[in-house]
Amino acid sequence: MFALCTPFAPVQAQTQIPTVSVEAPAQRARPAAAASSRRSATARTARANRRSPAQQATPTQSASANRDTGERANGPVRGFVATRSGTATKTDTPLIETPQSVSVVTTDQIRNQGAVSIGEALRYTAGVSGDVNGGSDTRFGALQIRGFDTTMSGLYIDGLRIPSSNYVHFNGLDPYGAERLEVLKGPSSAMYGGSGTGGILNYVTKLPTAQQFGEVSISGGSFNRYQGQFDMGGPANKEGTVLWRLTGVVRDGETQVDFTKDNRVFIAPAVTFKPNEDTTITILADYQKDRAGWGLQFLPASGTVWPNNGRTIPVSFFAGVPSFNAFNTEIATAGYLLSHNFTDNITFRQNLRYAYQHNEEKVFYGGGYTNEAAGQLARFGSYSNSYINSFAVDNQLQGKFTTGILSHTTLVGIDYRNTSFRDTAFGATTSAPEINVFNPVYSYDWAIGAMSDNTGVRQSQVGLYAQDQIKLGRLSFQLGGRQDFVTTLVDSNLPTSNTSVSKDASAFTGRAAVMYNFDSGIAPYFSYSESFLPVLATGPSGQMLNPETGVQYEVGVKYQPLGWNALFTFAAFDLTRDNVVTFAPPSYLAEQIGQVKSRGIELEGTMSLADGWNLRAAYAYVDAMLSQDPVNLGKAPPTVPLNRASLWSDFTLQNGPLAGLQFGGGIRYVGATWGDDANTFKVGSSTVLDALLAYTRDNWRLSLNVTNLADTRYVAACYSLSGCFYAEGRKAIGKLTYRW
């Protein structure tokens, strides 16, 4: 099976090698005396023009031209349109000059669309789905990019890889702590080391600003959901050499699934120190504690995708045991972003992060009908604990220089990551192993059984990389390469067996691209990129599996209309992924089936105009196929739609007695998908409406967001006849916000 075929089958635990970082905060309120004693006025002016100015756009400002506010790669964006990014290149590069597809979801877009999870925030992004398994998935799994599941291989925080275990990952991190979410599509190992073929998701953390600001919100709505959140910060001293920020969320809520909680506490402090005009260091951390239930019920296709003798399983149906239902997670990360300018043209950056996660799961889930006509569903139970510890550091040296008629931005770096995790699992039993899906009667007894898994993984990685961005007038080239060295040790310590295997892997991956920027704002490009991903799972005989590899060819056109705050992109891609790992029934042991191909096109447009109009449109055509699977050759992987489209638009009245009134909405379409690897049945297409109504006056904002406005009932995904998941029904959230 691809992705989540069973709660405790290893979900393609892949090694992720952290690297990358975007620029450290660029606010530079420097002591004038120190600056004047070191440089002439001319040198200071040149340096100020090269770097972002001290003015910092606060999160509350309305949409206008980003170029005029000194937008930087990891900084705030006014409106929906980001113009710069560091995710693709690790340098602060305009998106119109980046020869690879990058989608940026800004804070304003997350707020206007009422997104409360990373998955929801990605719903209007071309070729991407962050909630394939539906909005009630408290595991926050099934992140899909260009037809490939990247749940376990795709999340980065400020450019550093945040690893996963076989059972759990960090994708549930609260989006309120992000300044922006950036999706880099396609293989990117030339800069990031071990990463998936589909792409990566970079969670760019909110950083301190040079302007004092604050925001406090309270909200409530569907599924007994109540939430408070705050975000505040500014200078800590008169000189502006110390800046601070504190962001937090507290939530008490439930989901559409009966007996399933969704409670959260999130806190993220950050402090920036600027001892001189050349050095900036930001110390940042976050802590998140979730007390949730198990949202995935593993329902049969009969009764969800199609009726069971005219009957439909309710979307609120809970297949488990109410007293044995938990998905409790504790996440903590801490690190820093350091930047130092040796000269106007040479900059050193070091980014470091430690990440920790503990997860406890208690679950009984559906295991297929024992009597379909009667609606009797078998249930299986499990109790598991996972612990993840990871340390990552990325060192970068950037130089700018010219050689004859060519100008260069050259980056060289070395990064290191050390990750360890352990997954333990036990079977669980109940005196009522079956439940009627149409008339459930719940038992509350349970017992823990024998240990079924005790897997520990330790992995260390070192990567050496180099990149050159070359310009010849309006023609630009990008060349990059990386050498990785990875050592992985896997041990399994069960009462019946005790095994330990290790594997060393190394690979060179490259990237090459060419782009031309016309005066009209049109920029065609072509790129080639490769990926390399050591696999953590072991095969049926206990051997370590070979690394997955990938290759992509991409051709596209970007368009930034002159005088408009807008960006439009078109991309056509051809992706090949080799040594693909699946976990197929009945054994759910890891197997490498060979090769999967994904070809398609993407169109995406974002726009934020001064008259208060925001727009985001996306379309993706993805044709994925198992091209070397000996059993399902030529079949399409489940959950991957051929067509996906979305459109969001909102408008704020600028004048008159109703000035500040905002209204908008969106439509999301997901095409039909296959429900199993053998393509024996299909899950139907779906069309969903979202809506926004808000009013802003002075420092106050009152808003109402409704997702799935028509309360459309549909199945989000199936992985087998007994593994289907409902999408989230109508959800309304009202919010009151005060800003200063």
Description:
This is Iron complex outermembrane receptor protein. It is a multi-pass membrane protein. It holds the Pfam family TonB_dep_Rec_b-barrel. InterPro entries: Beta-barrel_TonB, Beta-barrel_TonB_sf, Plug_dom, Plug_dom_sf, TonB-dep_rcpt-like, TonB_sidphr_rcpt. It is found in: Cell outer membrane. The chain is mainly beta and 740 residues long. It is built from 5 helices and 37 strands. It has a 22-stranded antiparallel β-barrel. The protein has a 5-stranded mixed sheet with strand order 3-9-10-7-8. Strands 4-5-6 form a 3-stranded antiparallel sheet, with no helix packed on it. The longest helix has 10 residues. The termini are far apart. The N terminus is likely disordered.
Compact overview of the structure:
The chain is built from five helices and 37 strands. The strands form six sheets. It has a 22-stranded antiparallel beta barrel. The chain has a five-stranded mixed β-sheet with strand order 3-9-10-7-8. Strands 4-5-6 form a three-stranded antiparallel β-sheet, with no helix packed on it.
Structural topology:
Elements (H helix, E strand, L loop, with lengths): L31 H7 L2 H10 L33 E2 L7 E2 L7 E5 H7 L4 H4 L6 E2 L14 E2 L2 E2 L5 E3 L2 E2 L16 E8 L3 H4 L6 E7 L7 E9 L3 E11 L6 E11 L9 E15 L2 E14 L33 E16 L4 E26 L4 E28 L2 E24 L4 E3 L10 E26 L2 E20 L2 E20 L5 E12 L14 E12 L6 E18 L6 E19 L4 E14 L16 E10 L8 E10 L2 E2 L7 E2 L2 E12 L2 E8 L7 E6 L2 E4 L4 E9 L1
Parallel strand pairs: 7-10
Antiparallel strand pairs: 1-2, 3-9, 4-5, 5-6, 7-8, 9-10, 11-12, 11-37, 12-13, 13-14, 14-15, 15-16, 16-17, 17-18, 18-19, 18-20, 19-21, 21-22, 22-23, 23-24, 24-25, 25-26, 26-27, 27-28, 28-29, 29-30, 30-33, 31-32, 33-34, 34-37, 35-36
